[in-house]
Amino acid sequence: MELNQLAEWLAAVCLLVSAFFSLVGAIGLVRLPDFYMRLHAPTKASTLGVGGVLLASMILSALQGRAGMAELLITLFVFVTAPVSANLMAQAALHLGVHTRAPAPEEAVPERRTS
Amino acid sequence: MNTAILAFALDAATAATALAFVLCAWRLVRGPQSIDRVLAIDTLYLNAVALVVLLGIRLQTALLFEAALIVAMLGFASTVALARYLSRGDVIE
């Protein structure tokens, strides 16, 4: 009984963390000014969001007495394919010549003076 | 669901994921270039996987996880195909 309550609290915490991260990813997708910055936000945050939901689902299904193999498969699949798809989208954006608003490296790094 | 905290967490997670859906759809409609729309589709299918899994938790059935797996695989394949189409001009060489 005590273990059940502990597992349910743990699953609730996982659900809330995943909700926060998927919301942060979507807000970053809308608010950031540039494609490359927009690529950064959801590819990390949504992976963690889906992972949290699947972790909560695995905890709850273990509580019911069945092993969550399908959840484990989805988690592995999402964690493997999210960087691949982000890389392919970045390659396509480079090919299309999408401009960035980030400062050029000469402006970003101040030149060091030799004294 | 037997405890209140789990029901509250399920409701909050579902609402947050639905709000993320709406924001991604806004970027999908609004996106200035085609690659922005591809990125919005990618985030949309990840959110769809999360929503299907949340429904599976809520209904306490193991039937929906295969559906979530199929959504994840088809979404990855479509993202790869669209990105390849935008960068190379054709999908399969």
Give a written overview of the molecule.
The complex is a heterodimer of chains A (115) and B (93). Chain A contains four helices and no strands. With 115 residues, chain A is mainly α. Chain B is mainly alpha-helical and 93 residues long. Chain B has one domain (27-93). In chain B, helix 2 packs antiparallel against helix 3. The radius of gyration of chain B is 16 Å and the shape is elongated. At the A-B interface, helix 1, helix 2 and helix 3 of A face helix 1, helix 2 and helix 3 of B.
How are the SSEs ordered, and which strands pair?
The complex is a heterodimer of chains A (115) and B (93).
Chain A: H1 2-31, H2 35-64, H3 69-96, H4 105-108
Chain B: H1 4-30, H2 34-59, H3 64-88
Helix pairs in contact in B: 1-2, 2-3
Short description:
With 115 residues, chain A is mainly alpha-helical. Chain A is built from four helices and no strands.
Secondary-structure element sequence of chain A? HHHH
Question: What number is the mean pLDDT of chain B?
Answer: 88
**Helix/strand order of chain B:** HHH
Range of helix content of chain B: over 70%
Specify the number of helices of chain B: 3
Largest interface: chains, residues each? A-B, 55 and 51 residues
Q: How many strand segments of chain B?
A: 0
Secondary structure: number of strands of chain A: 0
Name a few traits of the molecule.
heterodimer; A: 115 residues; mainly alpha; 4 helices; elongated; B: 93 residues
